[in-house]
């Protein structure tokens, strides 16, 4: 029976009666089972039984404690199940839940008379739902308290006094009683933190929050300071974790209100830090669990990630760190800057009193942690950052990396990493520091080596440090590979990803083994994830699954970075191709590989780019990709990326590609599906089809056997013509039609006579040319004053001009010139009478279009040549831009309102940045490499200009002659444009040559002994 068929039946009503009646008669354990059923019915059928049981709350008799306690527990449990839904905004009608909460707040206090800790806990849970409901009233501009002031005051007074009043009795009641007591305090912490957060952070806080801040916040600050003292004296620290975090968060929030800060925090800030906050920074029992298990590398790797994230509050150490930062961070104008110097003095005294004992080491751990937390604040004090920190690091921190206590050694390594980018003034000290850090890769303790691996990535960001660390790159990778088999984490793949991205040349000796290990790691993780998908349920299972997913993504990213770095190391690529193909086959054959498809295609694309000719193992990937596009549908969403790989196939093995009938059939089928198959796809993926056709035409034109393309020309040109008139494509942005038209221009460049004949035979003449010249009318008539046009036409014309990139202009020059060489020479015309009478107006328009493209390209070549010359000089000199160090992602002590601003800022559309220095703008087609890159389009145009000038000089006047004669560019203009184009082509080739030479120099230098 489904939920819908069960709705409204007598059976459902009977079940409700049985459940409500049974809740008061069963044990606590069985009641939890019944409440789980009640929750399902509430969720599925909107059951609100609160009006039915509210009279029982109002008339509850607490005089007979023995019988009242079980009834109170059952009643409050039942109330909480409904009231919990009040906390979710708009889940229940506002007025109804406000009335219910007003009634509950009035009658709940009577349950305190039962003096039962379980009843206390349930009462606080229900009251929390009420306070959350009242805080929501700020959204409806509630200006008065929702319940009488006296009632509010009595509640808050009781909550504030509860921890002290019941502490002694709870301690004496045994473990179970004390555990319930701590839960009560934790619930109080949740209530008052939520209220104070609204009072200090919301611009329009509820009246309840304002009342609390004005009248009760000060005693609550004292109460939570006292509670932290209670917790620190307890032997079972783990039990108090959540209540401690709420207490710490409350104190942090108290620093956001000026009066509260000045009255309760500022006068005792340093004392508060030393007695109640600092102990949470020290090495604790929870840390010992990680360090005592010598085989627990997996747990330690997660511990490293958790400990080094300063923005969360999932542990007492994180919460205490954030509270300290809030006290001294200076995010408010009323904060006291002198507190920071006081804290630094505490750290200095602490680090100066290390005596080698374990207890001292645990406290030193806390001082180091505090030093790490304050990095951003210390950077704001020039005298400390620029001078004193070098002394502190050299004399107080660096020596601790030799500590016999592994936990202290690891923390010292982390602090050395955090402060490694200070402005070192003594090269000898810097060299000694780097040498000591590098030596830790040989430490016998695996945790130390793992921590050092993380630190090395930061150190290697400094160009100054690399001369001291290059010799450890290969050992560093070897260490990472050794840990990959033992630790399942995102951390190691992230490190390998960084190393592969920045130091592939230096890692040449181990790249082959590195890729093999990473591929094996990826496939093993994928196998484990598939197995876990069947058993997902518990939070731990989900966390493990997510970790595997993130680790797999970092792994395939690292493989991608390695492959991308092999531009000048074809031997290495050849040796690792079998592993790469194994990886790609796995991803392409899984329709649900969305998380990895992007990176897999990039690997596929670059492997095909490097492999010349394309080896058999890569050809074997063509059918799986074809299936991915045509059958699974997944490939449609990635077709623009697949096109890049196909382009590389036809570029590196043009004869093998164009001469393989099966490959050409598959290629045509994929292009047809994308262009006229009615697919739902992004514009980039649609545009990829004409790009692929262009690639084949370019390569065919310049390969040893161009005739291989001729049998397929009619099919592809006809497909482009169909795509141009397809209604779906006509609705798409200009860029899609630009690619389609440019592909036809490439067909003219490949074989103008045959292409023109195809256009005539298909009935597209003169319609195609009318459409072409109308599309580019803004370029053709650029030198003429235009009349009034409607807004749509003006907008589209401007978009056409902005989309007409250097590459598009170059292709149009080559295509139109090829066409002119045919249609202006009677001997070259096809036999068809219609093409023989080629419209002279088209000739004139074509010349105008060519001239516009030549002039626009000339404007771009000059500044681009300047930039290329700068880039070549930088490669020759070994110049590398230093990473900006004014900001560190770990320096995040943001308040919650600032966090919101950061999130909003992160959503700004700044993903695509363009370099417009010296008038040069990056264009979408800049990374599109073709054989025509080496063709000077002005020289090619000259092949038509020279004979036409001779023809006109001889006295012959074709129909287009007079107009074209008046349009001809002068010799000086043509010469300038030719020189600029040739220089640009030359500099591009020179830059590539210099980059290859630089790679070779770095590879050789990495094999030299360390300095």
UniProtKB/TrEMBL annotation:
* GO terms classed as biological process: protein import into nucleus
Give the top-rank taxon of the lineage listed in the UniProt record for this protein: Eukaryota
Provide the Gene Ontology terms for cellular component: cytosol; nuclear envelope
SUPFAM superfamilies named among the record's database cross-references: ARM repeat (SSF48371)
Q: Where is this region: Disordered?
A: 877-897
Q: What ranges does the record list as Acidic residues composition bias?
A: 881-897
Among PANTHER family, the record links this protein to: IMPORTIN N-TERMINAL DOMAIN-CONTAINING PROTEIN (PTHR10997:SF52), IMPORTIN-7, 8, 11 (PTHR10997)
Task: State the protein's name.
Answer: Uncharacterized protein
């Amino acid at each position: 029976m489904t939920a819908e068929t069960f709705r409204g039946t007598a059976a459902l009503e009977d079940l409700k009666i049985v459940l409500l009646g049974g809740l008061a008669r069963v044990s606590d354990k069985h009641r939890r089972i019944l409440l789980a059923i009640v929750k399902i019915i509430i969720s599925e059928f909107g059951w609100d039984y609160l009006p039915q049981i509210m009279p029982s709350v109002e008339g509850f008799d607490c005089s007979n404690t023995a019988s009242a306690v079980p009834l109170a527990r059952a009643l409050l449990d039942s109330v909480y199940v409904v009231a919990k839904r009040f906390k979710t905004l708009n889940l229940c009608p506002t007025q109804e839940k406000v009335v219910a909460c007003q009634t509950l707040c009035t009658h709940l206090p009577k349950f305190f008379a039962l003096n039962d800790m379980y009843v206390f806990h349930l009462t606080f849970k229900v009251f929390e739902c009420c306070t959350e409901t009242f805080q929501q009233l700020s959204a409806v501009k509630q200006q008065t308290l929702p319940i009488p002031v006296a009632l509010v005051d009595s509640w808050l007074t009781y909550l504030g006094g509860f921890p002290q009043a019941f502490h002694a009795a709870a301690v004496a009641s045994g473990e179970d009683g004390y555990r319930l007591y701590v839960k009560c305090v934790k619930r109080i912490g949740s209530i008052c933190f939520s209220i104070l957060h609204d009072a200090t952070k919301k611009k329009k806080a509820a009246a309840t929050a304002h009342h609390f801040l004005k009248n009760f916040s000060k005693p609550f600050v004292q109460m939570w300071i006292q509670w932290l003292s209670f917790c620190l004296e307890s032997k079972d620290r783990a039990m108090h974790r959540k209540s401690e975090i709420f207490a710490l968060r409350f104190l942090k929030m108290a620093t956001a209100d000026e009066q509260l800060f000045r009255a309760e925090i500022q006068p005792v800030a340093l004392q508060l830090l030393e007695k109640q906050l600092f102990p949470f920074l020290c090495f604790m029992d929870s840390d010992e669990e990680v360090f005592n298990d010598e085989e627990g590398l997996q747990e330690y790797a997660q511990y490293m990630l958790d400990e080094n994230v300063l923005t969360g509050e999932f542990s007492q150490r994180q919460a205490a760190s954030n509270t300290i930062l809030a006290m001294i961070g200076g995010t408010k104008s009323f904060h006291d800057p002198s507190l920071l110097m006081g804290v630094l003095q505490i750290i200095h005294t602490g680090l100066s009193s290390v005596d080698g004992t374990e207890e001292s080491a645990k406290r030193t751990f806390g001082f180091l942690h505090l030093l790490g937390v304050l990095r951003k604040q210390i950077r704001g004090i020039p005298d400390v950052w620029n001078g004193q920190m070098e002394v502190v690091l050299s004399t107080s921190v660096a020596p601790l990396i030799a500590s016999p206590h592994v936990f202290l050694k690891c923390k010292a390594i982390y602090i050395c990493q955090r402060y490694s980018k200070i402005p070192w003034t003594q090269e000898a000290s810097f060299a000694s520091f780097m040498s000591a850090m590098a030596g830790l890769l040989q430490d016998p303790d695996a945790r130390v080596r793992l921590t050092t691996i993380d630190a090395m990535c930061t150190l290697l960001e400094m160009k100054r440090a690399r001369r001291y660390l290059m010799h450890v790159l290969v050992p560093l990778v070897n260490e990472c590979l050794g840990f990959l088999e033992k630790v399942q984490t995102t951390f190691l793949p992230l490190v390998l990803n960084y190393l592969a991205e920045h130091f592939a040349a230096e890692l040449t000796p181990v790249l082959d083994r590195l890729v093999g290990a990473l591929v094996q790691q990826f496939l093993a993780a994928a196998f484990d994830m598939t197995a876990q998908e069947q058993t997902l349920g518990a939070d731990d299972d989900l966390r493990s699954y997510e970790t595997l997913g993130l680790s797999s993504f970092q792994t395939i990213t690292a493989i991608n970075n390695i492959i991308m770095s092999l531009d000048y190391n074809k031997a290495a690529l050849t040796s690792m191709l079998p592993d790469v193909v194994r990886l790609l086959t796995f991803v392409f054959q899984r329709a649900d590989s969305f998380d990895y498809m992007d990176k897999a295609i990039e690997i596929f694309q670059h492997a095909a780019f490097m492999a010349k000719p394309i080896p058999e193992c890569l050809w074997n990937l063509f059918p799986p990709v074809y299936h991915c596009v045509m059958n699974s549908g997944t490939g449609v969403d990635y077709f623009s990326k697949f096109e890049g790989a196909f382009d590389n196939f036809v570029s590196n093995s043009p004869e093998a590609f164009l001469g393989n009938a099966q490959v050409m059939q598959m290629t045509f089928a994929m292009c047809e599906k994308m262009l006229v198959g009615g697919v739902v796809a992004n514009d980039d993926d649609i545009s990829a089809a004409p790009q692929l056709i262009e690639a084949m035409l370019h390569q065919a034109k310049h390969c040893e056997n161009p005739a291989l393309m001729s049998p397929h020309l009619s099919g592809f040109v006809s497909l482009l013509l169909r795509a141009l008139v397809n209604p779906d494509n006509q609705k798409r942005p200009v860029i899609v039609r630009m690619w389609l038209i440019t592909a036809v221009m490439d067909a003219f460049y490949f074989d103008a006579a045959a292409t023109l004949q195809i256009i005539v035979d298909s009935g597209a003449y003169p319609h195609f040319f009318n459409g072409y010249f109308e599309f580019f009318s803004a370029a053709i008539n650029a030198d003429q004053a235009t009349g009034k046009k409607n807004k749509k036409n003006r907008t589209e014309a401007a978009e056409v001009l902005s989309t007409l990139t250097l590459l598009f202009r170059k292709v149009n020059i080559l295509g139109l010139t090829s066409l002119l060489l045919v249609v202006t020479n009677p001997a070259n015309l096809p036999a068809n009478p219609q093409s023989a009478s080629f419209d002279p107006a088209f000739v004139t328009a074509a010349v105008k279009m060519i001239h516009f493209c030549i002039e626009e390209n000339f404007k771009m070549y000059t500044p681009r040549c300047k930039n290329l010359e700068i880039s070549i000089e930088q490669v020759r000199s070994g110049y590398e831009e230093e990473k900006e160090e004014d900001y560190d992602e770990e320096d995040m002590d943001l308040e919650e309102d600032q966090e919101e601003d950061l999130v909003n800022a992160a959503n700004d559309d700044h993903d695509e940045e363009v370099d417009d220095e010296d008038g040069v703008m990056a264009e979408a087609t800049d990374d599109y490499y073709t054989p025509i890159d080496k063709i000077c389009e002005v020289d090619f145009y000259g092949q038509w200009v020279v004979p036409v000038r001779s023809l006109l000089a001889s006295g012959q006047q074709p129909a287009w002659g007079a107009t074209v004669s008046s349009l001809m560019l002068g010799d000086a203009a043509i010469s300038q444009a030719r020189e600029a184009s040739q220089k640009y082509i030359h500099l591009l080739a020179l830059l590539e040559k210099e980059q290859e030479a630089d790679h070779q120099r770095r590879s050789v230098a990495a094999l030299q002994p360390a300095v």
